[in-house]
Amino acid sequence: MGKFLVGFVLPSLLLTASLINWSLISLIDLVAFLLILYNVSQLGFHFRRRLLLLWPIIIFSVVAILFQVTYLVVWAIKPMSWIPDAWWTKLIGFMTVQSWKSPYAIYFLVIQLLALLVALLDIYGKRHFLNTWQDSYWGRLILIVEHLGSHLRVASCLLLPAIQLVVGISHPSWASLPFFVGSCVGLVDWSLTSNFLGLFRWWRLLQLYASFNIFLLYTYQLPVEYPSMIQWMADLFGLYKISENTEWTKICSSLSLILYYIMMSFVKSDLEEMGFIISGTDCNLTEQLLPSRHSFFIRESRSGVRHTHVLLRGAVFRSFSINFFTYGFPVSLFALSFWSFHFASLCAFGLLAYVGYIIYAFPSLFRLHRLNGLLLVFILFWAVSTYIFNVAFTFLNWKLGRDMKIWEMVGLWHYPIPGFFLLAQFCLGILVALGNLVNNSVFLLSDEGGQTLNDYTSVKVEGETKVLIVATIAWGLRKCSRAIMLALIFLIAIKPGFIHAVYMVFFLIYLLSHSISRKLRRALILLCEIHFALLYILQINLVSSALEKKGSVSMEIVMQLGFLEEDSAWDFLEVALLACFCTIHNHGFEMLFSFSAIIQHAPSPPIGFSILKAGLNKSVLLSVYSSSSVRNNVENFSYGPTYCYTGSAWVVKRL
Question: How far is CA 493 from CA 488, 489, 490, 516, in A?
């Protein structure tokens, strides 16, 4: 009961009283609100600290009520027109009843009186009413509220990172920059360590900074005419006046800031306890201190290691993990490519270089985990740079505006409302971070509850129709891919220019050779990526405008290479399709082999994957795509090429 009164009812009353009127009296209410919430997790254990907070509130409430009532009585007995309009009355917080439709003075007195009664009840009446209310209706109601509060804490832990991001991007300024940087650092930590607590990186510092920011923002609302120098510094820092004509982004920023501080104060003790449990050594005392309310976040593996990997919790998260593992990676590559073309710049070219490296080398999942971490850092560093550029542009417009083409070539744009662009860029980082998280969760699930590799041989012949469909489609793609590659190479090679002449050499080699070596395919992939990169760079506005100047030698060189001014999206599509087909030929078997092994160990198959799983169970795809050069690589795996040959014989027999 005491924690409900002091931790919820009293802060709500103080916050309401502080928002009724911008004044010094209301500022003291706000300070009391901030102090109570900052210590709300310790008020139930430190009685002396509770008294040190409640008694000043009681004394202040009595003084504020007496002064306000005295002022109202004097104004009612002898009304003076100049008193309500005096600057010192507005600054202190004395109010009069101008209209009974909105008597703010009466509202303030009632709320302040309720705060006084709640504080007195917590000090004197809690022991007296505790036994009386324990078995009554109010006691059961308080228990229900406390039970709901535990669920709200879990929801707050899940929503708090999103609220922190809203605080950072709703109204970009120097004051909101630490929140956005904290969100970026937390996302990187969560992605690399798979620790959900990583999202709350620097939460202690951010909580203190949020209280300081709320105090400064409220102080700036006081009815005082500040000097022009102070107003300029306030605008530079990110402070603003709140009125009826205030922009919605500023209103959203202020509300989300208060909500962030409230939610952080309520989950503060939970974050401290979970951090202690995760970092603590295994002992009986630590096991006893594990609260049941943290069971949603804390999970213990079979080895006895506790972690907060949320994606391992429940069937829904596990199903999401295996489906994102299956479909998320190509979606991520498409999203990175789309972002690179929609925001063509040098920074976006870095994203395209990542996609090109994946197509060329197709690294292992362990190497891809490190590479995704570097990509995530690059994306978020680009987002922070865009944030700083938009904040600085407001005050350095006369300097930065002259070189906007250079900044746009780098990848920094100015937006009237940059929050939407920052949100999209952060979501791109979330997509990359989820790739790392899902890979870790799928491996852990495979290690904990997977089947053995010997289960391959125990699979009976089931779903023969599905297997035949898979075998037919795979065989058709295998036979048609060479013809498709020849057609794509020929379409590119018939264009004028030196770079297209190199494609003609590859076309003749592919046409005359019976088998293509792995090195030759990698050389063709590298040529496609160089061609694609040059086409992309020429699409950047500053580069294209520099080449369009009359008498440009660079333009003549570009024309001789085969890059025309009217290069269209079809040119990009031809080169990209050719590179993708070469990649499938070069890395398709290894990808399919490793993917099939992971899918067989997964607790449940991905959505819409029953047909392909039937093919994997019979090793149909492995037998269709295996060749003399590939079978040597298969021998390195545990169950060897024998079952591939069995699957191939079964397919031939059925066909």
Answer: 9, 6, 5, 19
Q: What is the pLDDT of residue 369?
A: 84
Angle at alpha carbon of residue 224, lines to 221 and 228, rounded to 5°: 95
411 located within any domain? yes
Q: Which domain holds residue 108?
A: 2-287
Tokens of 390: 């938009």
Quick one: which of 38, 32, 24, 34 has its CA closest to 53? 32
Residues 443 and 486 in one domain: no
What pTM did the predictor assign? 0.85
Q: Tell whether 19 and 66 lie within a shared domain.
A: yes
Same domain, 270 and 319: no
Q: Is residue 304 part of a domain?
A: no
Asked whether the beta carbons of 292 and 273 are under 8 A apart, the reply is no
**Which two tokens mark 315?**
């069937």
Question: Which residues make Cβ contacts (< 8 Å) with residue 440, sequence separation at least 6?
Answer: 194, 309, 369
Q: Are residues 482 and 421 in the same domain?
A: no
Mean pLDDT (10-residue bins), the chain, 655 residues: 75 93 93 91 66 89 93 78 69 80 86 92 68 60 70 84 95 94 94 86 93 95 89 90 89 95 89 75 46 53 53 67 84 93 91 93 84 94 94 74 80 87 94 88 62 42 59 70 88 90 93 86 93 90 76 77 73 91 80 71 69 57 53 44 44 48
Q: Answer whether residue 294 is part of any domain.
A: no
Report the C-alpha gap between 1 and 578 in whole angstroms.
69
Q: Where on the phi/psi map is residue 314: left (φ > 0), alpha (ψ -120 to 50), or beta? A: left
Residues 56 and 184 in one domain: yes
Q: Which of 390, 415, 449 is the last residue of a domain?
A: 449
Give the contacts of 467 (CB within 8 A, at least 6 positions apart): 614, 615, 618, 620, 651, 654
Question: Which value, to the nearest 10 degrees, does the dihedral of the CA atoms of residues 77, 78, 80, 85 take?
Answer: -30
- Do 350 and 441 lie in one domain? The reply is yes
Nearest to 440 by CA among 307, 617, 335, 316: 307
pLDDT of residue 271: 84
